[in-house]
Amino acid sequence: MALISVVTTCHNAQDCIEKTIRSVLSQDFRDFEYIIMDGGSTDGTVSVAESFRDSFDKAGIDFAVYSEKDHGIYEGMNHGLKHASGEYVNFLNADDCLFEPGTLTGVAKKIEAENRLPDIFYGDAAAIEFGERYRFVKDLSLIEKRMPFSHQSVFARRTLLTEIPFCEQYRIGADYDFLLSAYRQGRKFCDLGMQVCIVTLDGLSSLALHDTFVETVEIQRAHGIDLYSDKTYRRKIRSLKIKQFVMDHFPKWVIFAIRKIQRIHRGQNEHC
Questions:
Q1: What is the mean pLDDT of residues 138-155?
Q2: Distance CA 266, CA 181 (A)
Q3: If you ran DSSP here, which 8-state letter would residue 252 be given?
Q4: Quick one: CA dihedral 263, 180, 150, 112, positive or negative?
Q5: pTM, rounded to two decimals
Q6: Backbone angles phi and psi of 146, in degrees to 5
Q7: pLDDT of the residue at 262
């Protein structure tokens, strides 16, 4: 059994998955397996993935590609988990990358230093938006208010993921639901204290501001957390609809300026 399983779920990702695969292949750590879980792509995604098989074999890294239709990323992640054998599992999306060749070595050292006791390890993420890279600020103390860190920076115990599978009724925030479930069960979290990944912020949860908020509140309420009065909730919805209109219809340079101001306000504009 490998210490770590890295799982990439994808669908029609032939134009971006190569950089993800190369970042995994470049790792100087070897006690891990890499699983690509394709959701029944109709483009060349599987062919691109299979073209790296010899390279992984030569590097001595266990490598597997599976392709079966699913109904969304979280069903794909649950499917990938069934094929994983690692003690800890990381889900690295197509179009995202591990931060550097020594990333998994650093993660493994931290896991061993903590005697493999924590259920969830998490780290820092560098986010790319409109071509600019900056640090995504993590904060576990905010978990009952929002997603506390990038799920691509998480290494969760496989047995825990089996106990708390991703809830496929959620289209956007099942990763948040998983983390919140583990947190409220009193599972042990541990900060890796290192950069783990580079994520591209053009996914569903980055763009669908209104839908993301609605689902986040639904998840929180399912866990007995109610942060908004009806009046505050309606006001927030109106505000997000305006922001979503701007995101959908304004020129990119306007959106870039707005997002940059938001990052500065949140303290997330530190480049890395």
A1: 95
A2: 26
A3: H
A4: positive
A5: 0.90
A6: -165, 175
A7: 61
Query: CB–CB of 33/119 below 8 Å?
Result: no
Strand-pair partners of 10: 38
| 189-200/120-129 β-pairing | parallel
pLDDT of residue 205: 44
For the CA atoms of 254, 260, 265, 269, the dihedral, rounded to the nearest 10 degrees, stands at 180
Per-residue pLDDT tens for 223-250? Answer: 999 999 999 999 999 988 888 887 777 7
Cα–Cα separations (whole angstroms), residue 21 to 16, 79, 160, 170: 9, 19, 26, 27
CA–CA separation, 174 and 192 (whole Å): 22
Measured distance CA(70)–CA(141) in Å, rounded: 34
The closest of 76, 110, 69, 116 to 93, measured between CA atoms, is 76
165, 97 Cβ separation under 8 angstroms = no
Q: Is the confidence at residue 156, as pLDDT, over 50? A: yes
- The secondary structure of residue 164, as a DSSP letter, is S
Above 80 in pLDDT, residue 185? yes
116 vs 5: CA distance, rounded Å: 15
Mean pLDDT over 44-54 rounds to 97
| CATH code given to domain 4-266 | 3.90.550.10
Question: Which ranges in 136-229 belong to alpha helices (H)?
Answer: 158-163, 174-184, 204-207, 209-222
What single-letter amino acid sits at 50? E
